[in-house]
Amino acid sequence: MKNFFTFLSVLIISLTVYISFNDLIPSSEKSLDKHDFSVENALNHLEVISKKPHYTGSQYHEEVKNYLVDELNLLGLKTEIQNQFVLSSWGVGTNAANIIGTIEGSNNGKSLVLLTHYDSRHHSSYGASDAGSGVATILEGLRAFLSNNNKPLNDIHVVFTDAEEIGLLGAQAFVKNHKLVDDIGLVLNFEARGSGGPSYMLIETNGKNGNLISEFKNANPGFPAANSLMYSVYKMLPNDTDLTVFREQADINGFNFAFIGDHFDYHSSLDSFERLDRNTLIHQADYFMSMVNHFSKIDLSELDSEKDYVYSNFPIIKFIYFSNSWIFPLLIFSIIFFLFIIYLGLAINKLSVQGILNGILALTISLFTCLSLTIVLWKTISYFNPDYADILHGFTYNGYYYISAFIFFNFFSLLAIYSPFFKNNSAIDLSIVPIGFWVILNVLISFYLKGAAFFLIPVYFALFTIILTYKLNFKSNTIILLWTIISLPLIYIFVPQLKLFPVGLGLDNLFITSFLLVLIFILLLPVFSNFSFKRHIKNLMLCISIIFFVLAFINNDYDSNNKKPNSILYYSDFDMKESHWLSYNNNIDAFTNQFFDEFNSDHSINLSSSSKYSTPFKQSSFADFVDIPTAEVQILNDTIIDSKRIVKLKIEPTRNINKIELTSDDTFVFDAISVQGVEYESDKNEIKVESGRFLSYYMALGDKQLIIDLNFSKDLSPNFNLIETSFDLLENDNFDINPREDFMMPMPFVNTDAIVVSKKIVL
């Protein structure tokens, strides 16, 4: 019988793990049948949008813009293009072209905005997932919505922003300058940070989330993937979304719907039409249709709330939430309940002091061993795979194999650690300290990370199970089944997060997965301790772990589907008549070797890295000087009024360039700076320009020149470095460069395949 109950428990746990992942994302188009959403139509849009890279300033960016305007007009929307010079507070600017379409509602209440961006990351990303998937979802979703003769009560505005990838500039242009902003009640933003996996709901609000959560639940999405910890994780990532601008600059609430699976495709040339997970697109469509059908018909002025909610996925009902005001009462009661269980257990001889003390030792060894082994083993793997350092986001193509390998390896370690303790101690004795550890963790959460307060749920299930065990005096077979069933919420809620963190944050964070696995395991001790054939299960975990490590090793090479990123940049100092080859790569490969035969580490080059991850240049070598045409710099006006000097500069490129940067070797204080007539924002009455880059302007397709106005003390004699960048190194006739092999691609997140020329401007 014990073998049967062991098998049944393993089966239930395995099914729950499967369902916990399966409930996060649809597996077929059938879920969209009731909405009349055609995945084929959406894919047709996506194929056009992602045919070529379409970063701001590129030719195909203009073609995508025209295509989207035509499609919105075909849907009958009132459409406009907002052309707006914009300059961010951190000195990044462009001439953004936002596309705005409107469906008029029957009421005069607050409007609903459907948001995504249509530019791709410069310069080689096809932008299929990020964010062509969002554009395609909105276009087809609106067609389906209108085809059902839906007449919204609220105005619906489609906002396809430009220049999101270079600093959320299109969103800033819209929020700061468009008249529609004052009437917006809610924003639904569709984004991506990979090319597959579930789409997670992330709230953006300056206030309380209570009404937003309850209305999200009322919208009844088919596959809600969300918990209140995710926004905390999202804020840890080195990026925001357009929706952040709406929240920060206009105090507008909204929902992000974003997926992060297959993170290795993010911002790279692999973000293509073919690689977008179709089920992920279906998930975005399910969100879109349920949200639009709901939020287009309710009062959007009533979404502010006096309450904050903790929320999470949950078995069967899929989504639960409770007020933050419950956190401390639930926590206090859990502490009292926990202490009562210890007292009662000792009083009726269901617990032993020695067993509880042994539980402290077992848990300490488990935490130290699993975390240490994970960190050391991953450092070792990284050491023997130096190419991993060139995958800047930290998630390798064989990353899923590594995650699985570490999970099973830690599972094996935990079984090995606890095996001797199982022989000499009762499962309930060993469970007391783990439950106490969970309680302590929840005390910290209640003060520092309230979004994770759903961690209290498994504690209560465990405490109630122990009470039942005391009262009914269960035998081991019954304990296995009872504890397995009551632990289903624990498994359902937490197992998907074992994958979430290393995918989203990089494999360097595998220790988080190990920590979460220990948390899950220690609440299941009464199950594992009563299993038959524990030794065989332990050995099976080790074998499975080895298999996944072998699969990771076998799939470690690069190929045409999993390409090796590398970078090259030609930098020329026009004044010094000196040039260099530069690369962000830690390691030289067959492509970069042609530039770095005579390697030297000349790190005196004053050039901004322009890397999202602040990656410095890793390789440099001298290059033949090529006389690349530089911009003409003209002083249009130079006036002194009282103690102030006012200078107007015109910078006019003489070749096709994509970006102009101004850097400074020194620190200067200006009274005012404006670019293309847009003032540089500052919280003070002066603008302090530190050493380094203080302006990046991305040239839009129609830009011919850059006008900069400076106001400063007449006693100041500022000088700048004017840096011009073009993404045409491999096409330029001045250079004879062997192309990349099929298994290589331009490194994402950095400037590469670029010609960069600098020269001094002295005022």
Key words describing this protein structure:
about 775 residues; five-stranded antiparallel β-sheet; about 40% helix
Briefly summarize what is shown.
With 763 residues, the chain is of the alpha+beta class. The chain contains 19 helices and 25 strands.
Distance from N terminus to C terminus (CA atoms, Å) equals 89 Å
- Strand residue percentage: 15-25%
Largest sheet at a glance?
14 strands, mixed
Radius of gyration: 29 Å
Describe the protein in words.
The chain is an alpha+beta fold and 763 residues long. 40% of the residues lie in helices and 21% in strands. The strands form 5 sheets. Strands 1, 2, 3, 4, 5, 6, 7, 11, 12, 13, 16, 21, 23 and 25 form a 14-stranded mixed β-sheet that branches. Helix 4 (128-147) links the parallel strand 3 and strand 4. Helix 1 crosses helix 16 (488-505) and helix 11 runs antiparallel to helix 17. The radius of gyration is 29 Å and the shape is globular. The model has no long low-confidence stretch (mean pLDDT 93).
Write the layout of secondary structure elements.
Layout: H1 2-22, H2 39-49, H3 59-74, E1 78-87, E2 92-103, E3 111-117, H4 128-147, E4 156-161, H5 169-177, E5 184-192, E6 196-204, H6 210-219, H7 230-234, H8 242-250, E7 254-261, H9 278-295, E8 309-314, E9 318-323, H10 327-347, H11 353-384, H12 399-424, H13 427-448, H14 456-472, H15 476-486, H16 488-505, H17 510-523, H18 525-530, H19 534-554, E10 564-566, E11 569-573, E12 578-583, E13 619-623, E14 632-641, E15 644-652, E16 659-664, E17 668-670, E18 672-675, E19 678-679, E20 687-689, E21 692-698, E22 706-713, E23 719-726, E24 744-746, E25 754-762
Parallel strand pairs: 2-21, 3-4, 3-5, 5-7, 10-24, 11-25
Antiparallel strand pairs: 1-2, 2-4, 6-7, 8-9, 11-12, 12-13, 14-15, 15-22, 16-21, 16-23, 17-20, 18-19, 18-22, 23-25
Helix pairs in contact: 1-15, 1-16, 2-4, 4-9, 5-8, 6-9, 10-13, 10-14, 11-12, 11-13, 11-17, 12-16, 12-17, 12-19, 13-14, 14-15, 16-17
